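Class prep. Protein, please:
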Amino acid sequence: MRLLLLSRIGDLEKQEGDARNELQELERKSSVLMEKKLENDRLKRKVDLYSDMTTLLERKNQEALIKKAEKPEEVTVVKPAVEKKVVPEEKAVQSNPLVQGEYPYSIYLSSLKTLDQAKRAIAVYANKGIQAYWVKVNLKEKGE
């Protein structure tokens, strides 16, 4: 009976050792799971933070786009407008302007009989982007 009890005690001690080993393994797994849970919670907070930041940046971007749309774009003048020189009829040149030195460079393109013809010719040149004007010239013996 004593042998039986010793055998039984050996079995119980072995079971106790196995149970302790199993308990240590469970504690180790529990510790690992707790670390992973903490890491998971930390990552969730980080995702929430990034999500909030993204939402804020999207809102700010929309506001900036709206403000940009409200402002007119800056206009850059490539070719400034040239002020046309208009010679009133009262100050019309009575002779060749080159002789008087008023126009250092001139190209005469036509001679017309009426003021309406001259205005139409100027309009044609203006539509083509050419700056033009008329000058009344007195040709003396040939008439005005």
Summary: The radius of gyration is 51 Å. The CA atoms of residues 70 and 111 lie 52 Å apart. Residues 90-101 have pLDDT under 50 and may be disordered. Residues 2-70 form the longest helix (69 residues).
